[in-house]
Every structure is written in structure tokens, then in C-alpha cells.
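Form 7-S
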Amino acid sequence: MRFYLGTHMPNWLATAGVPLFISRNRLKGRRTFPRAIAPWALDSGGFTELMQHGRWTITPEQYVAEVRRYRDAIGMLDWAAPMDWMCEPWVIDGGQHGPLTFAGTGLTVEEHQRLTVENLIELRALAPDLPFIPVLQGWRLEDYERCAEMYAAAGINLAAEPVVGLGSVCRRQATSEIGEIVNRFRSQGLNLHGFGVKTRGIADYGDELTSADSMAWSMDARRSDPLPGHTHKNCANCPDWAIRWHQRIVRQHLTPVA
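Output:
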């Protein structure tokens, strides 16, 4: 499994030397970009778009132009997420969820799925040279199965795709529920990417994923003392902590035992 280290620091692309997962929100305002020394993947920033606005505020044409710029300027882009529509109830209904306030889309899960599938088709038509991946969206298992059927009806064979994102899972509390969804689609031959997978999830079903990303290191660092010799209050923005964490997760959960 390729394990992407989630980061809000684009400059790490030039120094980290491990696969990175970076949001469009961290790149869109930049005039210059670092050159990547390791593979990376692009998150579209859809969660923030829908949380703040209840809709996408950019067009597919604008997103395509951005992704092409990132690919050419940074290099080593594995893939980019589409402008997908998350299906968490609070994204749809709006209101408060934890510390976050959601605008709400006022749509249904099925409408979010249809918009997600249609967007991938449009992005690929606009830019067949860019590595946009399909993302399965849903909330219950049967929702994800319906989304897979939508892709099939559109002529997209998910089993033939190098990567298929599994959306709307990173904020779930029940890893067993995610595991069931992962198992169902892995048994159908899909190469799944787990967005924002928790450490427990990596241990429970990481062997069924083709790739995953996580920023759990930052919260760990925020709750811990800084590394020896580090003078900052904590290591929540520290590449040393992040890379050590990434190496530990790979060693403990993803390295085959001889």
C-alpha cells in the first residue's frame, strides 16, 4: 500500500522524500511551487467548499487549469481527486457538527452521487491528460453500491481504474463500518484509496487498500511534548515529527513480516 502523509505545508514537497497528500486549498493562492522529490496526490478541497458554501464555487474548467498547473510546476503527481460531493449528513443538512458549522447543500445523497459521477466525466472530457480518479460517495453501504452502479451506467469500469477513492469515511467513528465497505468493494477487484484513514483503520483494513492518506500525526504532535532539541511549543507543524510518524506507521502496519 502507498501511504501518503497528509500535510498543510506544500514546501515539504521539495524536502520530505515520502509520498504526500495535499489539498488544493494549500496550493491555490501560490505564485510559485516547489519541485516534488517524491510522489504526491491532490485533494480537491471539496469538504471545505461544501462546508463553507454548500456548493462548489469554481467551475470544472477552473479546476482543470489549476491541476494542470500543479502537475507541470510541481511534478510527480500521482492523481487528483475530482470535484466530488461528500455525503455526510451534516454536509447535506447543514448546522453544527463538532467545532465546525456547515452551510448545508439541501440535496440528497443520491443527488450528491450523481453530481460526483457527472463531474468526473466532465473533468476527463476537458482534460484527458490529467489523472483524475473516480470517487465512490455515499453514507450507508447500499449508497456506495448505488454510486458504483452509476459509474457502470456511465461506462466507467471501476475495476479497471488504477485508483478509486472511497469518500465520506474519514469522519466516521466506527471503523468496523468502514471495514465492511472496504471489504465489499475490494472483493470486486477495486483498487481503493482511503481518504483520511485513522491509525486504527490502517491496522484493521489497511491490507485491503491500494493507498491511503492521513494527517493524524498533527493531532498526535499537538497533544505531545516536542521532540528533544525542538524549541517550539509542540511539533504540530514539524516535518521531523511527521516523517518519524509516517515511518512508524509504515513499519508497524504496512511492512510485511519476514
